[in-house]
Input
Amino acid sequence: MECAAIIVAAGRGERAGAARTPKQYRRIGGRSVLAHAAAAFADHAAVDRVLAVIGPDHAADYAADPDLTQAGLLPPVVGGEHRQESVLRGLEALADDPPDTVLIHDAARPFVGTEVIGRVLDRLATHPAVIPTVPIVNTVKRVAADGTVSQTIPRETLVAAQTPQGFAYEAILAAHRQAAGTSKPFTDDAAIAAASGLAIERVDGDPANVKLTTADDLAMAEARFSAWPWFETRTGQGFDVHAFGPGDAVMLGGIRIAHDAGLTGHSDADVILHALTDAVLAAISDGDIGAHFPPGDPQWQGAASDRFLAFAADRVRARGGTVVNLDATLIGEAPKLAPHRDAIRARIADIAGLDIDRIAVKATTSEGLGFTGRREGLAAQAIATVRLPSGR
Output
C-alpha cells in the first residue's frame, strides 16, 4: 500500500512569541521545527510521499529553508484560515494520484519517532482510522464559569490524542468534504472521521511526542536537542596558501582589497575563504575543497570563492547540523587587514548564513620570516566549530 504524509504547518504560531518568524520555521537543534517533523516521515521507509501545507504568507520562509527544499518533499500547498480547511486542501492536492493511506501530522510536533509512525501504519493495514494516544497522568478537574472546581473527572478511560493520525485516504477525504459543509467545530481529524461513521482505533503514542505551543515549549525543545545524545560538537581545521602575481587587488574573505599585486591559484585565490571551507568540511569529515572543486577543472578558474564556503555550510545543514563559529587568521606582511575586518566578517556571515558575532577574523605577520615574510604570498588558517546530530 502506498502511504502519503501531510504535515500541517499553516498556523501563525502566535502563542510561541514568534512575532516575525512563525514557530514552525523557528530553528531548534540546527533545523526548523517543520523540517524536523517532515524529516521523520521523509526518512521513514514506509512513507512514499510527504506534503507540507503552509500558511499563505509563509512561502518565503519555506523557500529559504534548504532542509525543506532539498528533502524531496512534494511542492507545498497553501492552507486555509483554520486547520480543518488546511488539511482538506492537503488531501485534495493528493486526489489526482491518490495514495492508499494518509498520515496527518502537526508540524508543531518535531519529536515524533519512527516507532509511533510504525505503530499507526501497522494498525492502519486493518483499520480505516488510527490515532496514537498517551495516558493522562494528572488528575483532571472540571472548572465552573466562576473559576471554582466543580468536579473531579475519573481519568481511567481518558487519553490524550497525538499525531500522526492515520486513515484510509478515500475515507478521510470523504469525511473532510462532508465536514466542510457543516458549521460544527472539530478539534482533530479523528473527530471528523468519527462524525462520518468511521470507527477509530488507538495505538500507543509517545510522551516525548509533545506539541510545541508556547515560547517556553520552544526553549525546552532547544535544550532537549542540545543535550547528549542528540547533538555533538565537532571542530575542523583549514589552511591555505597562494602566491602573489600580477594584479592590483586581492580577494580576502569575499572582499576585494586594493594591493600592488594579485594572488594566483585556484578560483579567485581567496585564502581566507579557502581555509574556512576546508575547516567546515573537515569538521564533518567530508573531504576538502579540492575534492569537491578540483583545481584542474576549468569551470572553477577565476570562480568566486564564496560559492565554496556556502557549499560547505549547506553540507552541514543537509546533515541536520549547524555551523556554530568560524575563526580565520591571515598570515602576511601586507595588505593590512584591520581596515577591512568588519566588512570581511559581515561578508563571511552572509555567505555561511550566520550572525556576525559568530565570525572571528584576525591577521598576523611572520616577522619577516618565510615566504610570507618575504612578501611572496599570503597564507590563512581557520577553525570551524559545528554541531551535528549524533551518528551523522
The longest strand covers residues 231-245. The chain has a mean pLDDT of 91. The two ends are 30 Å apart (CA to CA). The chain has two domains: 3-226, 232-389.
